[in-house]
Amino acid sequence: MRDLGAIVKAYDVRGLVPDEWDVDVARAFGSATADVLAAEATAMVVGHDMRPTSLSLVAAFSDGVTARGVDVVNIGLASTDQLYFASGALSLPGAMFTASHNPAEYNGIKFCRAGAAPVGRDTGLADVREIAERILNDDGPRRDTWVSRLQTPAERSLHSQAAAPGRIDRRDMLAEYAAYLHGLVDLSTIRPLTVVVDAGNGMAGHTVPAVLDVPGLTVIPLYFELDGTFPNHEANPIEPANLVDLQHAVLERGADLGLAFDGDADRCFVVDERGEIVSPSTLTALIAVRELRRAPGSAVVHNLITSHAVPEIISENGGTPVRTPVGHSLIKARMAETDAVFGGEHSAHFYFRDFWRADSGMLAALHTLAALGSVEEELSSMLAPYARYVLSGELNSRVEDVDGTLRAVESAYAGEPDIAIDYLDGLTVEHTGSPMWWFNLRPSNTEPLLRLNVEGVDRITMETVRDDVLALVREAAKGE
């Protein structure tokens, strides 16, 4: 019996090819996706990254979709946010073939409903898995069973009558994507800037030449050749080691800033003119201020791992900060509930109401360039007001008894003066007096890990709290 549990994650499909999935699985996913996500559509949009296995997986997936009588709009090579653009502009559900920053032997699928609406385990992905497994295991009346569960007679009729196979149309939407982004962030009046861009051999090598072809902007490319084997470094800029080449290039070329994108180019990291890495929380605060100027009084969503400076700055600029757990589906849902103009995560995912609430690393890059290009300051000086505190970054500890360790850490702080504890996502402990500090300790969704993030008013405070919590985690682990 084929079980897809190992590759169907909370928000996407991801695994080793061909060890964990292959073209047969991709074809089953195509049919299942057509049944679940295209229930109110006659077509879906499909894009892919530069990985060696992407073309064959897309072809098989498209076969599965068209076998259900649903058309495919194949946009070819694309960043993930370009796929979201296509889904939004065409009002179609979508599937993006990518494993983001994972090594070359991985591939995956990110799904969305029409209008780039998120899809996760509780919003359709579990159903896709169920139907795909039935197809692979040849388990009974797969399609009729699903059709009977559709919500409305119109949906049931649409899928029951799909006798003819769908067709595949190819459409290059890169120019439309670039034009749409330029309509959201205007770079036409910025002062001359020099920017080094590290594409990591990923999809930014495809999108940056189209989007950053702007008068006055000099782009120095690093690793723009599309190569899914990642010959230079991992396309994972959250790891500092993968930013070293960018930092050196910024200093050597005297650039105003550097930009680094992950493999599918939906995340963007920034390096300032000194070669220093800019915290994604700092960028969240900067972009929030810019979006609040355009939409005064709006809500801005941030996850609980971002710096305390983020909600402070949102409030100071007339916005309403909305705190959420970690996870893009949760961010997008809260943005919809609150009509938030913008959302940011500590992992450098940035979400925009005018981009169908989807995340776009390229839009974050454009905001940074527009902000810097409108002042005569260097980037480090411009961002200084947004970087108020010191963050530890995410620290992982392997523990077997995750719940027991969390209880042990909680008990060490419960009842202490000026301590507030909440459980929005794992365990968050905040010192409400002086000096300011807080930490969050939350379990991984996929491994026996606890992820620690700490922030303090200064480095000494942060490091003291960090070391204290790590000592508690290690002590609890000894007793397992």
From TrEMBL:
Transmembrane portions of the chain: none
Domain annotation Alpha-D-phosphohexomutase alpha/beta/alpha: ranges: 7-133, 176-275, 283-389
A Pfam family hit: PGM_PMM_II
UniProt-recorded Gene Ontology molecular function terms: intramolecular phosphotransferase activity; metal ion binding
Keywords: Isomerase, Magnesium, Metal-binding, Phosphoprotein
Alpha-D-phosphohexomutase C-terminal domain ranges (all copies): 394-470
Source superkingdom: Bacteria
Cofactor(s) the protein needs: Mg(2+)
Protein name from the UniProt record: Phosphomannomutase/phosphoglucomutase
